[in-house]
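Checked the freezer inventory, then went back to the computational side. Two predictions to log before the end of the day. The first one is the construct we discussed on Monday; recording sequence and tokens without edits.
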Amino acid sequence: MSSEYDKIKTAKELVNHVMVHGFSTKTDDVVRAQDIFGNSTIEELAFLANDIGRDDKDGNPDPKGTMCSGRRATRGTFYSILFQIWNWEDATRFWNAHTNPEHERLAELRTENAALKTIAKQAEVDRERFNKERADREAYIDEKLAILEEAIHKAEAAENEIMRLKAKLYDLTVGKEE
């Protein structure tokens, strides 16, 4: 048996052919389409899956591009073929891995989450270090306060002793004159 896709060698050629002629559901054609996709690189398939016919400012194909390129988008035809020749789970997995914008956002959030976890761990280490430093400083201050209180008590005791001795001196001085 021969397939209408026998002369087609690349996934891009197959997608272009299907855009013009539609997809053949004959068993030999489906099997040949599976072979073509199976022998294509992931990069080629991902390009076809994401080509929306737009370019970036430099003229390169870009699925987020804003400038019309003049070429037909391949995304719709590519996924139409893919879901007919692959198991739906594999096709969905490919969609999620290479096209789904929510999956892309999820990857960005995972990266951001990992960065935030690193920052949080560092903040925890810093907090523990600051708490230890604070505890050390509080102990130092408590030690110095104890020394200060002892010095104040000694000064008060010395002042009291001076007052007592002055009174005694006065008594002795006044007592001799009378």
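The second is the one RB wanted added to the comparison set:
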Amino acid sequence: MSDYKLEINDDSLLFETASFKAERGSILHSGIYNRELASSLAASACITLLGFFFAGRVKPDALSFVSALSIFLALFLAFRTFLFRDVLLGVIVDKGAGAVKITVKNLLGTRGTTFPLTALEDIRQDYTTIAPENPDGVRLVEMISLQHGTVIPGFGKTLEFYTVGMEFKGGKSFIIYSSNEPSRVEHIHKSFKDFLNTQLSTR
């Protein structure tokens, strides 16, 4: 499953992804605590509040449980879509307008920066690693997890990031894609390079 969108026409390139950060995130593994879990917890909290509100007023029956489940699903989708939605980075390269626009879309709106295409100096492919900052703390958490019969996949491991970045004149640089799968990074890097071959080869 692809975690990015890439569309290339004769004079324009559109790229969009939610995977553009090469940094250690929450101490909790993304497979355990993520936007889906956050949406589920928020929806569950709302259902619990409704349960207290209607306690003693509505007799529990099959219809009540079906209604609660339907409300939970609707709230889960609403929270996931509007409150805990992914932060998206977008890149638009327009040869006709001679411009490169980089935007970040989040809950608060969209902010963007536009550069002249002539200011683009390079499309870089890099590799970086991030080691755990507190090995002793990692070992302690792992010991506690094992005592409870829980294994946190990937917890405390050195993170590896393969990235694609855009460099502009004046020292401006942006990571536009990050992944632990080098083949995806290579494909995006090559696609940008091929599309911008004429512009970059004349520098």
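For RB: The chain is about 35% helix and 30% strand. The first helix runs from residue 35 to 54. Let me know if you want it refolded.
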